[in-house]
Model the fold of this input.
Amino acid sequence: MPQFDETELTAAVIKSFEETPNPRLKFLMSELVRSLHDFVRRTDLTFGEWEQGIDFLTRTGQKCTSSRQEFILLSDVLGVSMLVDAVNHREREGATQTTVLGPFYVGEHKPMPHGTDISANIEGERMFVQSRVTDLAGKPLAGVPVDIWHADDEGFYDSQKPSYETAGPSLRARFITDADGRFFFRTILPCSYPIPIDGPVGELILETRRHPMRPAHVHFLVNAPGYEPLITHVFIEGDKYLDSDVVFGVKDELISKIEVRNDATMPDGQPASGPWHLMTYEFRLKPGKGTAPKPMLPAAEHA
Done:
């Protein structure tokens, strides 16, 4: 008869998964149990600490809604999201670097004409974004959907605002690349911002004396048939949080120098009402396959 004590318990739990028909699930569960049990032994975890952990995870789940994913946020601030990204994208030579999806990819990103101002009626310094999508050899990829989203001038995403359910999305859209692989749009210059700290993840950040800030960036999701989906950010050069991003998402290649311009017209020939910023970035896709993530919130909930 097995003795379910400190020395034999781990082996007994792992053995309980022996009949698991899915070999990958069996492997994952065995490794998870081994790691969790090792953590308990190494730390001499107390009953009080165990109860605090259970309470923390319970509250993390309770904070999740159709437009907020607290568990993704937890994964992000612990570096797990970036680690999963890294082990799944080890071979990136020549291709644009990837980074975390983040918890704010929500709603149906509706296709818009090139040049659309996705920041209409939103305060902020004006910015023109011009981009191109190519393969590794520089061949333009036409007809490719590109989803973009970013925070406003105060650091909030549309889904964080009370008006989201009635007013619908802003500062997010889908553009389809033209025959030369290009797309362009107008928006506002994003700023650095704190992750939500009104939940258990925020409590963890503050309790451990970490700052909650992310450097300014624009999210891009490029999804071309025959190529690996690209999930990435383009960061603003000079942001003071580039070296200490709370979710560890910055890579040197993803930092873009944003030009301050005073031209009377923007690159699409449309008039500018004053000084504006120019972001230019080219995305290089790697051949392959994969499934792009789906937004958390269905389009029907924006009606």
